[in-house]
Prior knowledge:
CATH superfamily of the largest domain: Glycogen Phosphorylase B
Low-confidence stretches: 318-330
Radius of gyration: 22 Å
Order of helices and strands: EHHEHEHEHHEHEEHEEHEHEHEHHH
Number of strands: 12
Structural class: alpha/beta
CATH class of the largest domain: Alpha Beta
Shape: globular
Distance between the termini: 68 Å
Helix content: 25-40%
Mean pLDDT: 86
Amino acid sequence: MNIAFIDHSYHQKTKSSEFFRTLLEDAGHSVEVHWCDAWRGGASVDLPKIAQYSYDRFIFWQQIYPPEELECLGPDKVIMVPMIDGCANRRHSWWKSYRKYRFISFSRALDQKLRANGIEHIGVQYWPEPESLSPNGQTTRDGRLSALFWMRSSEVSWQHVRILAESFPLGKMHIHQSLISDSEPDSVHGNDVVNLTYKTEISEWSPIRDDYQTALHQSHVYFAPRLLEGIGMSFLEAMALGLCVVAPNSPTMNEYIIHDVSGFLYDIRHPLLRQISAQEARNAGLTAREMVIDGRVRWRRDAERIEAFIEGEISDTISVWRGSPELPFRRRFAEDLISMSIALVKRVRAAVRNCHRASHANR
């Protein structure tokens, strides 16, 4: 199948859509990317032009063109993959105009909107490959933790994170500055990191990401950079490494993180947490990694469903509207509860073994 993949040009920098294109290519499809640069005043993708090519499917990744512009492509060939961070506040009338098109949802919150508006879709949840990532193990010399904050936008600022960081016994904070546009706030400077109880390091974005990756692999606590995420590749990578992720209580972070179990969620209006010990943070990170391992198995099944959906073979909408509208949500929620329970049992068993070892050592 020949697929035109219409994507946000910022993803050339972040590579956040690369996993999906790889999924399509591994399934034997030929994928050609068309980058949309309209978000920064550049050129949009010429849909009437690409409609003349011999494409079997047009997949719009985080790009939602007006319905009237999509008509030239043929509704049966179009698949929309929006993200909840780009359409969270859309009204019913807006969704209604897309009922003739099919959608893939990577968020429960988005999945609920699609179901409520009778739009044909499937809901999936991405999990990274944990086998390729090694869990962090180092601590600072005095037993304190290291933290990483990717300062990406004004949504979650250094002032938010500075308050939240007081809840952890930190020895070091690495601030990685990679602001999306010139309209974002000024970078963190020396005056912004005075009178702290921990050391600070500051790095800037670079194409090879060396500073960021080094800091990530040396950290135990990760402060998520955004108020809303479409999927959340950065915090998922941190979870896979066994970091304790601290994030706003909003999608998609609150669809992956179980508060006080596999990470910590906070209200962006009042960014406060209780005091969290180093051991609690480490345990949350280990539980998060175990959830990623379990979630990766479910993602492999979801990848097969995506392939069938693109071929036009399946849809969540049919079963939803014939039965309970909450059924898919409940099924996924139940799977997460099972995953959480398994992770907790593993942590309790490990703690019991450590206690037995310590008691024998002291005899």
